[in-house]
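Format notes (please read before filing issues)

Several people have asked whether sequences and structure tokens are stored in separate files. They are not. Every record keeps both together, in the order shown below: the sequence lines, then the token lines. Line labels are part of the format and must not be stripped during preprocessing.
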Amino acid sequence: MADRFSNAGLDQLRTFLAVYRAGSITAGARDVGLSQPTVTSQIQALEQQSGRQLFQRMPRGVQPTAVADDLAARVAGPLDALAQALTPSSTPEVPPEPVHLAGPAELLALRVMPALAPLVNRGIRLRVTAGLADDLLEGLRLGRFDLLISPVRPRGRTLLATPLTDEEFVLVAAGPLDPEQAPLIAYAEDLPIVRRYWRHVFGRRLTTSPAVVIPDLRGVLAAVIAGAGWSVLPRYLCAAELASGALQLLNDPEDPPINTGFLVRRSATGTNPHVHLVHDTLLGEGRTW
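Then the structure lines:
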């Protein structure tokens, strides 16, 4: 991918990264101090050079393509380091504030923290909060978090969401059983994951009430492995248990339900360069999950 942009100028790459981070041509132009037509021309030049589209033009702002995600992951670190080195300072350097990141507990533990471990070793500080999507989205709007991984796309203009990863849902238990009769172990009282599976796979409404509710899918997984009942889980979370035989698929549809997780930030970005670095790193890693 990098050779497609081998002739790209430094100014073009800076402009691209500003637009990528700001989520719009207008905001990106403001961040780099250029006119909107100039920024548009530089983005078009990069697209022509690579023969690939970098952004999809939306009614409000732009949506980066997978090519843009890859390019941003490659150039963000070097460009940020160069900008920092060229910034004059008469006072001792103050480390950036910690990056406040939020999302589902199990995804943070199993996917996000391993992906961000190299950044921590480079000095980036993180403050991580787990919780449910609606509560965390409100916290992001209020400025409590810098970044959020959300299983639902937020509405409104104040938050910008980029697809991060897809997760497949599977119906599992420790052994053969009838889901209509056996206890249901669930993530939430309103059964968002299980109800979605039932509608998608069976085309009907689920009427079962949960026997156990645990607001952490790792707890749901542990209860199901122990034989407490059945549940619907993301495949990545229970892949090892399915491979070992500790869990069994109760159904294996040709078209399983898929849910897209989004990396969300506020449309008005701050100045902390570490927020941008975490954002770009997660987008790059998310394609491998």
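For reference, the curators noted about this record: DSSP finds ten helices and eleven strands in the chain. The chain has three domains: 2-86, 99-164+261-286, 167-259.
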